[in-house]
Automatic annotation (TrEMBL):
Entry's Gene Ontology molecular function annotations: glycosyltransferase activity
Stated name of the protein: Glycosyltransferase
GO process annotations (BP): lipopolysaccharide biosynthetic process
Alphabetic keyword roster: Transferase
Organism of this sequence: Massilia eburnea
Length: 348
């Protein structure tokens, strides 16, 4: 079976969870067996009709056009939409009203991003959600049939399970306890709010992640605190990144919203507890002592959760045990089974 993988054109111009998800999924699919061949599609030189199935990652950034084109050609489509869990019946209703108003005002020459996402979800033959919260958001916010949605969480690369703190300590000179946040530096990721939440706590905050040109001022505002240190961006495969997760006392992700953040899973795989936004599809049963969820703008709550975990951390082995089932091989096996449901036997 030849599987074409697509997302929006500028995807790999930066590094983040979606980029890792796409790369790791392709690699794991190609390791399954000789009947499976997955590759990134270059639309400028390859035709969608040359593939047995198309898997689109993200329902945003104009990707509904890819889904439309594949459907018109009769090629089955799997969609991993990455829908925010904040969508519900009320927000979906308001978005549909706004879409109708925008259409009337523009003589139906304008289409909202909500309408585009909804169309991609409706046209796709099968939708893969990363968690139950995302599935409910897809059903309630976008009126998608529940029957065509499967839930397969992301995997975790093995280097995070075997990471050790020594490399990070040696390279950076940071010896004592510290909080770590990993992700692109931006108001949406809320690193400034985190720095302000920890002000006066005498717990250093280490930032890892890229910063765009327009956010340099935001970064400088964060760095005004003498307790904050920015290490720049690190490649996902860089051993220093995994070592940073292992060395941290607590990993924090205070962003305004996350679907299924890989950085949280990677921190847990390294044995480090996490404080994260409550706007997320990530749910781990029995994780209350090692994974705390706090509202993104609740600085007092973030401070209390981070400091309590730093003072009394759970055992690293018990933290790692929470996520030991999240492997990319397991993800690939589940996803490949979906592909085979949609593609006739003669194409396998």
């Amino acid at each position: 079976m030849r599987v074409g993988i697509l997302s929006y054109p500028m995807l790999f111009q930066r590094e983040g969870g979606l980029q890792v998800q796409v790369r790791e999924t392709i690699a794991a699919l190609n390791q399954l067996d000789a009947t499976m061949s997955a590759e990134l599609v270059d639309p400028s030189r390859q035709k969608l009709a040359d593939f047995d199935l198309i898997h689109v990652f993200s329902a945003h950034n104009g990707n509904f056009r890819v889904v439309e084109s594949a459907v018109d050609l009769g090629v089955p489509v799997v969609l991993s939409p990455l829908v925010s869990p904040s969508w519900d019946r009320n927000t979906g209703f308001r978005a549909r009203v706004a879409d109708r108003l925008a259409g009337k005002i523009s003589s139906y020459n304008l289409q909202t991003s909500y309408a585009q996402t909804k169309r991609a979800l409706q046209l796709a033959d099968l939708v893969i959600a990363l968690g139950e919260a995302e599935r409910e958001a897809i059903v309630n916010g976008f009126l998608t049939e529940r029957a065509k949605i499967r839930v397969f969480p992301n995997g975790i690369s093995r280097q995070f399970f075997t990471a050790r703190a020594e490399l990070f300590r040696q390279r950076t000179g940071i010896i004592g306890p510290f909080a770590l946040t990993v992700g692109s530096v931006s108001p949406y990721k809320n690193q400034l709010g985190l720095a302000q939440a920890l002000e006066g706590a005498e717990l250093p905050l280490v930032l890892i992640g890229p910063v765009s040109r327009e956010e340099h001022g935001y970064l400088q505002e964060i760095l005004r605190s003498p307790w904050v240190r920015w290490l720049g961006a690190l490649d996902h495969e860089d051993p220093l990144l995994a070592s940073a997760f292992a060395a941290a006392s607590v990993v924090a992700l205070p962003s305004q919203g996350e679907v299924f953040p890989l950085s949280v899973l990677e921190a847990l795989a390294a044995g480090t507890p996490v404080v994260m936004t409550e706007e997320s599809a990530l749910q781990l049963d029995g994780s209350g002592t090692m994974l705390r969820k706090v509202a993104w703008d609740d600085r007092a709550g973030q401070r209390e959760a981070i400091l309590s975990l730093a003072r009394k951390p759970p055992g690293r082995a018990s933290v790692q045990a929470m996520v030991e089932q999240f492997t990319w091989q397991r993800v690939a096996t589940q996803v490949a089974a979906c592909y085979r449901e949609l593609v006739p036997a003669h194409a396998v």
